[in-house]
Amino acid sequence: MSSSQNTQSLAEPRARGVFTACVLSNDPLCPKHYRIRLGMKNFPPSHPGQFVNIQCTGCRGRGVCDHADAQALTWSQTPRPRHPTGPETIGRIPLLRRPFSLAGRRDMTDGTVELDILYRVVGPGTNWLCQRKTGDEIDLLGPLGNGFAIREDKPLAAVIGGGTGIGPMIYLAESLSSAGRDVKAFAGARTVSALPLTEEQKGFFEITTDDGSLGQAGMVHEAFAQWLERDRTAEMVVYACGPEPMMKAVADICTPSGIECQLAMERHMACGMGVCQGCAIKVKTDEPPGWMFKLVCKDGPVFDAGELVWE
Amino acid sequence: MIDLSVDIAGVKLANPLMTASGTCGYADEYADFVDLSGLGAFVTKSITPAPRPGNDYPRIVETRAGLLNAIGLANIGLEAFCAEKIPLLERLGVPVFVNVAGASIAEYVSVIERLDDIEVVSGVELNISCPNVAEGGIQFGTDREQVAKITAAARKACRNKILIVKLSPNVTDITAPARAAVESGADALSLVNTFSAMVIDIETRKPVLANRTGGLSGPAIRPIAVYMVHRVWTEVAKDAGVPIIGMGGLQSTRDAIEFLLAGATGLAVGTATFVNPACLTEIRDGIAEYLEAHNHSSITEIIGTVR
Question: Collapsing DSSP states into helix, strand and coil, what is residue B31?
């Protein structure tokens, strides 16, 4: 754990477990993305960057149920997603849980907790999820992984989200802002109809779209670089989540300037608890061969940009 | 009170439920989600003499009713295991079976010799069936002469512990390696490990896994696993008095009863624990309810009783 200093959450290892959540709302933000709000009687402390694993099948009971529930076998009325390169999907019941970053959290005075998750419908798991109605129950495991490290010594934070990766950035920007910190937030998408933000949230982010249909035309890391050139005023920390090429571009901007950069990485994972070893990611080490595997679920998903080996 | 206890070659288990090797780490990972002290036994991830980083990513892909993995026996190595993980396992309070792998018979033997003096270890499970490594693993498990040779060598090194041989299902006749293992000194058999399998991305036209192939687990393989357990029980194990630890897509009470009826004495759960770690103890309780509902007082009354 030689370079884990930068990726440790402020909080100590904490309680986590399996919880039942109630769907409060589940609405499309744009044709590709949904935001689901979940209500829970209680939930352990969580941090931006952490994730939960949702069992995207309706069955409950002893063990793990493999019975079909009718809804899992039919596609929703929303436009059927095209997934030509993905695994077989139609009519398939998800076996494993699906990981989702937390996109917001509100602790109520009565002790109940509201969680937001922002997701894109890409396969059988998210297809099941987008059909959940207000009042439905969802089986959720978490919170998992380590959140972004908050830097008390750095007064300014730049928060950069791309596509579905905007989700955890909303949670982070809200947390930093409510803690009274100075936040500059960027959000990028291919086009305005793929931008998963509410109208209210759009005002908080500097927006870029690849086709210029909203905000600045171009890539989100370019907007960040221009701002950095122009307005950088203080010792700062950069946080990013999005497609890997975007995060690499952000890292390539920050690393030569010595700017601390924390990235939330994504890998396919079977368990999310550090057991299956599926979500391996290469990080640098001093000892030969110069790299080792860490696990995105347990050691991440937040990593220091300088620690990663890009492939 | 229903008696769920079973005997695996002299090791008394409070109930038949155990973790399947490689799916439950070294016990500390699941501590927040399931009370592992309620298991019959804990089976560790494979231990090799030296640490192994494992295969490149992607290492897993979900399939219809299954999970394909090619982790590549990633593990911390024998010495780190003894120093860091044995103290954790000592606190579990249940028998521990350590899964052992290596690239050569000498490597298997070196790990077994080291474990043979560690008190908390009740048994050694010989992994001669991993489909995801270049050397060792499955090459020992699919040839009956190799099975005999490695089992005999392990038997010699394993003086104070029971020896469990974990068989590969990637054979034409599962009773051949089972017989070879029993005749060479195995005290118990674990079956089955994963099935060699492949998923191809039709756009890139490359296999999805970096290792190209992987091992298939999950409910897709359960009926084949039940069949293999039943064949080995009736044709090899029953008469030899060798208990079987059944596994392969087991994820509910119903599945557990099916394995018991087919001839399994122990039950291991793997892939399903990724979804719900507590299924281990839930299935245990479900078995007790089934036995009570069917007027049995002991689990042993139903083992191998498929009509």
Answer: coil
